[in-house]
Amino acid sequence: MSDARAARRRDLIDEAFRAFVGGSDYPCLAGKGVVHERAYGLGIYGTLGSARATAALARDLAAFVAVPRTERAGFTAFVAVFTGRRFASERSFESRLWEQLQLLHERGNPAAGWDPGTSSDPEDPRFSFSFGGSALYVIGMHPRSSRVARRFRWSTLVFNPHAQFEQLRAQGQFERLRAAIRERELALQGSLNPSLADFGERSEARQYSGRHAEEAWRCPFHATHAAGDARTE
Asked: HSE of 109 in the Cβ direction (CA atoms, 13 Å)?
C-alpha cells in the first residue's frame, strides 16, 4: 500500500471512530472528551492477535505509556484498530482479545514490571492489564458486540491509563462521572452490562470484551513477568 493510500485509510478510520464516539447518544462522557480534544493516539493494524500486529502495537503502546503523566492534560487513550479478520461472535472476539493481550505482555519489557497499584492475577479484584509498567483499562469494540456502545465497524482495543481514573477518585469526581455515564448507557441500551463493577470489587478482566461473562468464566490471561506486582505488598 502506498503512503498516500495508507494516509487516506488512516484518515477514514479516524473519522469513523470520531463519529462513533462523538455521536450524541454515545454514553461515555470521558471518551467523548478525549475525542473532542483529540487527546488520543491511533494505530492501524492488521489482524487482532497476529504476530505482525503485535509487534507494531507493542512498539506504539510502549511509546504511548512512556509519556510522563505530567505531560498529559486531562483524559487520554490509545486506540488500536484492526482491519484484518472479522469475528463471527462475541466469544470469538473475546478469545482473540485475550490472545492479543497475552502476546503483548510476553513481548513487553520484563524489567518494566507490573504497575504496582494493580495485580497481575486476572481473578484478583485489583487486576488491570499492565504494559511498560503502566496499568491500562482495556475497552474492546467490534461489529458483533451485544453492547451498542461497543459496536464499532472494526475490531478495536482502546487502552485507557488507569492513573486518570484514580486521579478522578482523588478529586472526588469519579462517582459523579460514573453515574452520568451509566444513566446514558441505560438510555441507549436499556440495561447496564451485568459484568460492570468498580475497581477493587471484582476483576475488570470481565469487562474488557464487552460480553456478559458468566459466573463460571475464567480469564485465560497469565502473567509471565510481573515484578512490582501489588500482590507482593
From this structure: 12
* Strand partners of residue 79: 42, 158
| Residue 105 in grid coordinates | 505482555
Distance between CA atoms of 189 and 182, rounded to whole angstroms? 10
Helix or strand (DSSP H, E) at 160: strand 155-161
CB 43 within 8 A of CB 56: yes
Q: Give the whole-angstrom CA distance, residue 130 versus residue 148.
A: 27
| Set of cell numbers at residue 231 | 500482590
CA distances from 214 to 13, 194, 219 (A): 33, 9, 11
| Residue 230: per-residue pLDDT | 43
What is the tens place of the pLDDT at every residue in 16-38?
Answer: 999 999 999 999 999 999 999 99
Q: Could you identify the residue written with the cell 498529559? A: 72
CA distance 175 to 56: 36
* Cβ(57)–Cβ(80) below 8 Å: yes
Report yes or no: 125 and 202 within 8 Å, Cβ to Cβ: yes
Is residue 5 helix, strand or coil? helix
Whole-number Å distance between alpha carbons of 165 and 213: 23
